[in-house]
Amino acid sequence: MRRNRNAKIVATLGPASSTEDIIRKLFVAGVDMFRLNFSHGTHEQHKERVATIRKIGFEFNRPIGILGDLQGPKLRVGTFKGDGITLVPGATFRLDLNPAPGDATRVNLPHPEIFAALVKGAILLLDDGKLSLQVEDFGPDYAITRVEVGGRLTERKGVNVPGVVLPISPLTEKDHRDLEYALNLGVDWIALSFVQRPEDITEARAIIGDRALVMTKLEKPAAIDRLDEIVLASDSVMVARGDLGVEMPPERVPILQRAIVRACRREGKPVIVATQMLESMTASPVPTRAEASDVASAIFQGADAVMLSAESAAGKYPVEAVAMMDRIIGQVEGDPHYRALLEANHEEARNTVADAVCAALRQTAHIVSAKATISYTSSGASTLRTARERPEAPILCLTPYERTAGRLSVVWGVHALQTTLAPDVTTMTDMACRAAVQEGFAVAGDYVVIAAGVPFGHSGTTNLLRIAKVGANGADDGVPQAA
């Protein structure tokens, strides 16, 4: 099954999309990667969903990516004596470590790390930013605040501390259990929540090793302050606009989205734009025009993928939401201005052999009107550098490893295919030509341009560029086309 688009679709599985029939329909409608949200569901439910995804991938002979999204720390207030309180603007309100049920004057905040990081004047946001408190005094076990934005507060509501780096690991005890379980299930990507510093990624990677790739969710202002370092430390990035929009003014989020996408494109790291993209489709069979424009904006910016959350996990129209997203992407990529915007935002190649080869591949493919750019890769490095160039011709990735094919399912323009290990360049070239014909990219007489690393099987050795002409038998026609 070949997608006739470059940008990819990620869909979250949940109560509305847990059966094999729905998951298959979601894939057929356009899903390239499925997200397992470990904030919800049991390990056994996630295990069943992984087995179903792998079964469908085998059925269609297509790699389907799986993302395990860890919950991360959840900072919440404690309980109240009644069913909640009303915070009045200008009133004093105390937060402390006392576990006793709260009242109109105080409530338990069972997170000493918050008190340890406070400064006078710091802002505390409650209930997804609906309520706002300013710190007037604090100690190691309490904070006296003034209510800036009041309203109803009930127990266990979330707490955000924008502008403050909290001394908290992004991995809780629950995350450690979920991470090990997800890795044993064989997920392709692990998404990290609550990342504040590059060191948070290093901590997680020490546990993950090479069993999965690391996707950093950008949802904290502290992470934005060190954006370039975090992008470099990550394998991929998710623009988690929901949490980011809680701790930052909403008008800043579109600007940050664009900056994050550009930073990831510069480094050749896949970037996913997520949260509330087609939110109204949780209850409606059609999105608002503003939501359609939102998805289109992410595609025009060159994002690798866009993601559905509640729309596919708990909404009434999960399949319709995927189909709508697929149609929006198709319309944008068919617009004459789409290519011009990609070119305008194209980043210059770095001073490396791999970037030189892939930049030349992009230009060569344009000059000879190649029907496909083909990367033969073990680790996926050649394909990632090729995708960074955003070539006009589709990217056909050939890899001997199923794991690599699954990991690349979220990368812009990539059609990944598991093949056999090539013993030499001639065999690899024939294999590439036959795959281009088999997958519907080329016919006899067409050119394809191939990037690979020699010797084969060594990660990060992209050093070969080859032009091949597809022969009548589907293989290279034998005319020397090496570069």
What is the CATH domain class of the largest domain?
Answer: Alpha Beta
- Uncertain ranges: none
Class based on secondary structure composition and strand pairing: alpha/beta
Number of contiguous helices: 17
Strand arrangement across the biggest beta sheet: 1-2-3-12-13-14-15-16
- Rg, Cα atoms, Å: 24 Å
Strand element count? 21
Helical coverage, percent range: 25-40%
Q: What is the annotated CATH architecture of the largest domain? A: Alpha-Beta Barrel
Number of domains: 3
Q: How does the overall form come out from the CA principal axes?
A: elongated
Fourth-level CATH superfamily of the largest domain: Phosphoenolpyruvate-binding domains
Average pLDDT metric: 94
For the termini, the CA-CA separation is 32 Å
Q: CATH topology of the largest domain, what is it called? A: TIM Barrel
Largest beta-sheet characterization:
8 strands, parallel, barrel
Strand content: 15-25%
Model description:
This protein is α/β, with parallel strands linked by helices. The chain folds into three domains: about 10-70 and about 170-340, Phosphoenolpyruvate-binding domains (TIM Barrel), CATH 3.20.20.60; about 85-160, M1 Pyruvate Kinase, Domain 3; about 355-470, Pyruvate kinase, C-terminal domain (Pyruvate Kinase, Chain: A, domain 1). The protein contains 17 helices and 21 strands. It is elongated and about 80 Å long. The relative contact order is 0.11.
